[in-house]
Design a protein that fits this description.
With 401 residues, the chain is an alpha/beta fold. It is built from 15 helices and 13 strands. The longest helix has 20 residues. It starts with a helix and ends in a 9-residue tail after the last helix.
Length: 401
């Protein structure tokens, strides 16, 4: 019996409310030996108070030494084995902007980028152009036609957009074109099998036409493609956990992931403050609330230690508003580590704190990586976070006689 089958048998309903606050890329590293991480540097009185009340620990998102993308990291937090349920970024982006993926669709997450005269990437994110600037460019790309296929282009946010290829016999095992470096040209997409090679050829043609349409742009004159994906078949939160679940997020990818596991995306917030406004508005309508904060991750990816510290402090500031709602269980964590020192995701475990009346206090005095090492939750795989939240909410029956 796998974990989901067990939880289907054990879950029970009650009036409890569970909140999962996620600071994307929360975990970090000291910039110098003996220094402090971003989380340890930040002034975060509210998160530290949670650590004193609750139980802390460290989560490994996938397996030791494996660096997770945001999709697998969130899936693991949601209790879905990310190795079994592999979801490409394209499906997440498309679902997140409300595109209904069909059985013959392959979705691709795209970034506008800046190319020099020799076609080499000088900025992988086109200077993080604003949504107001990028959306008209994405819409311009709807002019692209590919024989035998339907092509859909949807703006996402800032430098991101999504492309969906629709046609019989398309595969999604296609390599990314983003080389994850500057000073080199984008890679060619390559399919792992005949069906996927057909998709790769469509992608090449899309890129060729897009370069022509974007030639007049000073920054967004090129694009990269990542995460070719079909829609996966997954059980829902209602089926596995017996929860009416809501997702509150700004970025479409996280809305898409939440929808794929059966959460209802609520509100249209554009800031953390507005996310908590939405949480307050829908409090009586759901049992479980996933609230996502992006900018701890993006500042870490920028390699900006001080800016990530400021984002942690902003995240800390909304905790009292969440506590005022009196959740039965409050968990705070991240979907992976994004140390500013590395300017990228990393394999390092992520701190987590759970606060509930049923918690066993562990003596932790602050919310940090070093304190979590000594916490009562220990070190566990992220797929067990949901059983822990259900147990603390009194939503699991006893197993066995």
């Amino acid at each position: 019996m796998d974990l989901h089958s067990l939880l289907r048998e054990l879950h029970k309903r009650n009036d409890s409310k569970i909140v999962l606050l996620v600071a994307d890329g929360l975990g970090g590293l000291p910039m110098e030996p003996g220094g402090k991480t971003e989380l340890e540097t930040a002034h975060k009185p509210n998160l530290d108070a949670l650590a004193r009340r609750g139980s802390s620990g460290l989560m490994t998102m996938i397996k030791p030494g494996i660096t997770p993308g945001s999709g697998p990291g969130h899936l693991a937090m949601f209790g879905y084995d990310p190795i079994r349920y592999q979801i490409g970024r394209g499906a997440l982006e498309a679902t997140g902007v409300g595109f209904a993926l069909g059985p013959n669709d392959v979705a691709v997450r795209c970034n506008f980028c800046t190319l020099d005269a020799q076609g080499r990437i000088t900025d992988r994110r086109a200077g993080r152009i604003s949504s107001e600037e990028s959306a008209p460019l994405a819409i311009r790309l709807r002019q692209i036609k590919i024989a035998g296929l339907e092509v859909f282009v949807e703006p996402v946010k800032e430098h991101r957009f999504v492309v969906v290829f629709r046609g019989e016999g398309l595969g999604d095992q296609v390599t990314d074109t983003d080389p994850q470096a500057t000073g080199v040209p984008p890679l060619d997409p390559v399919g792992a099998d005949p069906a996927s090679q057909r998709t790769a050829e469509a992608a090449k043609e899309f890129i060729r036409q897009a370069r022509q349409l974007l030639a007049d742009q000073p920054h967004a004159n090129g694009l990269t493609m990542r995460g070719f994906a079909k829609r996966p078949d997954m059980p829902t939160y209602e089926e596995v956990y017996g929860l009416r679940a809501a997702a509150i997020a700004v970025y479409p990818m996280y809305k898409g992931l939440a929808q794929l596991v059966g959460m209802k995306v609520v509100g249209s917030p554009s800031s953390l403050k507005e996310e908590i406004d939405v949480l307050e508005q829908v409090w009586n309508d759901f049992d479980f609330f996933f609230v996502h904060f992006k900018y701890t991750d993006s500042r870490g990816e920028d390699g900006n230690f001080e800016a990530k510290v400021r984002m942690i402090e902003e995240f800390d500031s909304i905790v009292p508003r969440v506590l005022a709602l009196k959740p039965s269980v409050l968990a705070v964590t991240g979907d992976h580590s994004t140390p500013s020192k590395l300017a990228s995701h990393s394999w390092h475990p992520v701190p987590v704190v759970i606060v509930a009346d049923s918690c066993r206090p562990d003596g932790c005095q602050e919310f940090s990586e070093s304190a979590a090492c000594r916490g009562g939750l220990g070190h566990f795989e992220a797929i067990y976070l949901m059983p822990l939240l259900l147990a603390h909410a009194g939503r699991l029956e006893k197993f066995g006689a």
